[in-house]
Amino acid sequence: EVQLVESGGGLVQPGGSLRLSCAGSGFFFSWYHMSWHRQAPGKEREMVASITNSGGTTDYADSVKGRFTISRDNAKHTVYLQMSNLKPEDTAVYYCRLDGTGTWGQGTQVTVSS
Description:
Strand 9 (92-98) and strand 10 (103-104) form a beta hairpin. The protein is an all-beta fold. The radius of gyration is 13 Å and the shape is globular. Helices cover 0% and strands 50% of the residues. The strands form 2 sheets. Strands 2, 4, 5, 6, 9, 10 and 11 form a 7-stranded mixed sheet that branches. The protein contains no helices and 11 strands.
């Protein structure tokens, strides 16, 4: 069974940092590009960052460039999202996706508030 499990969300003050993890199982992890997306209340889900299967190429939404970093460890079957200088508008449920398959994780809540 293909599974993606996110972790690392929580409550953080503006300017703070969090690292999200997404552990994959049930598929050949190093074969697939992966991405992080987020959905805030009342808004559509949007792509935040993506990474190729080798980790050699990354892409970011303009709203997070310079603050977020996507990375992956294929040996650990895990993709990460390091988030820094967090802003209240980053508050959302964050999901990882196995690109090209339509498989999503269950999501992890990130709340940025003082």
